[in-house]
Amino acid sequence: MPKRGGAVHVSTHRRHYVGKDGRERVYETHLLRRSWREDGKVRNETVANLSHLPGEVIELVRGALAGQRFVPAESAASVVRSLPHGHLAAVAAQARALGLPGLLGPSCRARDIAYALVLARVVHPASKLATVGWWADTTLGVDLDLAGVSTDEVYAAMDWLTGRQDAIEARLARRHLAPAGNPSGMALFDLSSSWLEGSHCPLAARGYSRDGKKGKLQIEYGLLTDAAGRPVAVRVFAGNTADPAAFVQAVEVIRDRFGLRQLVMVGDRGMITSARIEALKELGGTGWLTALRAPAIAKLAAAGGPLQPTLFDQDDLAEIAHPDYPGERLIACRNPLLAAERARKRNDLLTATETLLAPITAAVAAGRLAGADAIGLKVGRVINKYKVGKHFTITITDTSLTITRNTPGIAAEAALDGIYVLRTSLPTDHLDAPGVVTAYKNLSAVERDFRTLKTTDLDLRPIHHRLEDRVRGHVLIATLAAYLIWHLRATLAPLTYTDEHPPQRTNPVAPAHRSPTADRKAAHKTTPDDQLPLHSFQGLLDHLATLTRNDIRYGPDPTTPLVPTLTEPTPTQRRAFQLLHIPIPLTIT
User: Fold this and answer.
1) 21 has a pLDDT exceeding 80
2) Which DSSP category does 453 fall into?
3) How are strands ordered across the β-sheet holding 563-566?
4) 536 Cβ partners below 8 Å, 6+ apart?
5) Would you say 558 and 569 are in contact if contact means Cβ atoms under 8 Å apart?
6) Is-contact 552 562, C-beta < 8 A?
7) What single DSSP character describes residue 526?
8) Contact call for residues 199 and 135 (beta carbons, < 8 A)
9) Dihedral, CA atoms, 479, 481, 487, 489, nearest 10 degrees?
10) Does the N terminus or the C terminus of the chain have fewer Cβ atoms within 10 A?
11) How far apart are CA 2 and CA 74, in angstroms?
């Protein structure tokens, strides 16, 4: 008879079986067994078959029979609070690498709040009121001790930051525009606008809206960057400020406040006009690189002028000269792809205009519309909707309307399709003709900065502030965040779709191309080395936000100190902090 009583244990048996399909299968049996020794032999008794139980239950039984003690999980440890952390830790690490806290000013409560506003603008752009509420739900608010910050404190910090704008930008200018950090000696400047909500801001005015918000009051702001598009300074203007006036102020800031008198200003044809160039000549020291407007190009292309189609028989660019531009260089370029696109677009707009005019012509022919004045009013409402009215010849009488395309005018304009002319004060030994074209095309980097500011990352618009200094402070915070994002994008490029090493252009006039590595990243959506998933920049920040910091209390005693613990990072999160050259930090500070 089997012996009753005694210790029991869990015994696991595995059987291997190869089926007809050649696949090996493993069957496990978990038995609760009792063993004892009888007459010098080990005897076994199966008490129960545990195989039908879940695996974790079987392991619990095995551990309990081995002498382990178990308590409910909530009695052993509890997660008191879990806060998003990874995205803020990464952004703060980049900010510290750039010396951003010290750049803002001396350590104080106002600096901590201003610093938090910049970091928050990068990862969670929102209104100031929403931002203050969001801080408490992240490690940013805890680590910078921002709990209970009032809106008045936030506005006071903005005013403090605005008062330090010149000092901040002067340090950035010495870092990125002075000869040591800017051997090319070039600075890019461009103007953009954003609309405001409300009607009491003194800066608000109606002007040319680059946001396409007709009928909205707006402000304008000029962004100064280095040759790579790294934001250095920003100035806010009234919403009806013309581009040349903004450019003059930018030059004054560079010369008088930054002490830089040997820069080359690069701006588009609407920014650096002939009048502004004459002003720069009087100042001395500051060079320029811009483009000619269409009438000036047409003058160069007139009979006997230096700009003739034969210039581009062999190359896409040629250097020319003209008495109207003494001491300057003119670099003429022709882009065949741009020429074809402009021809297509012109024809589409002409056809669209003719479609708008067709009902008016039919009404006159049918006698439903008569009188030269009435016909002219109807035509005037639509003839220039698509900005091609100059290409039509219109004859109006009291009873007739004749509209034809101005074929000679269209042909004259088409002859200049794809042609643009750059003008610069730079001598040949400073920058050759292809280098001039490349430098002008670098203005696209400022356009990327504006997209960062207004849409893709920082959501600067619309602006809700009423006081001038608050508007300036809001734009300054966004610009400092754009400066931070510029470096973050470069640092984290291996984990995003960014082209890390774009190929050098053999022909600066031709369109840019992506590198084979970037094409591979886009096709496979993984990193080429360790096969990690790629993200957009904002998608990567969202993924980093899933790295949380958890405050854990061990044991049931509510007075036991909390232990901050990070969740297990994903391979992508580990790689991001490797690129930042730091271990994953437990705190923001």
Assistant:
1) no
2) I
3) 77-84, 548-554, 563-566
4) 496, 497
5) no
6) yes
7) B
8) no
9) -110
10) N
11) 42
Q: Among residues 177, 242, 172, which one has the least CA distance to residue 207?
A: 242
Distance CA 90, CA 95 (A): 9
Q: Please give the helix or strand (H or E) that residue 10 lies within, else none.
A: strand 8-18
Say how many C-beta atoms besides its own lie within 10 A of residue 573's C-beta.
25
If one compares 313 and 544, the residue with the highest pLDDT of the two is 544
Which residue is it, tokens 């990352």?
Answer: 457
Half-sphere exposure of 234 (CA within 13 A, CB side): 28
Coil, strand, or helix at residue 237? strand
Cα–Cα distance measured from residue 447 to residue 229, given in angstroms and rounded to the nearest whole number: 9
Burial class (CB in 10 A: 0-12, 13-18, 19+), 322: middle
What stretches of 292-344 adopt beta strand conformation (E)? 317-320, 329-334
Q: What is the pLDDT of residues 50-71, one digit of tens each?
A: 888 988 888 888 888 888 877 6
pTM, rounded to two decimals: 0.83
Q: Which residue carries 């608000």 as its tokens? A: 204
Half-sphere exposure of 406 (CA within 13 A, CB side): 14
How do residues 491-501 score in pLDDT, each as one tens digit?
A: 999 999 999 98
DSSP state of 535: B
Which pair of tokens denotes residue 303? 């009979």
Cα–Cα dist 538/558, whole Å: 39
The span from the CA of 334 to the CA of 312, in Å, is 7
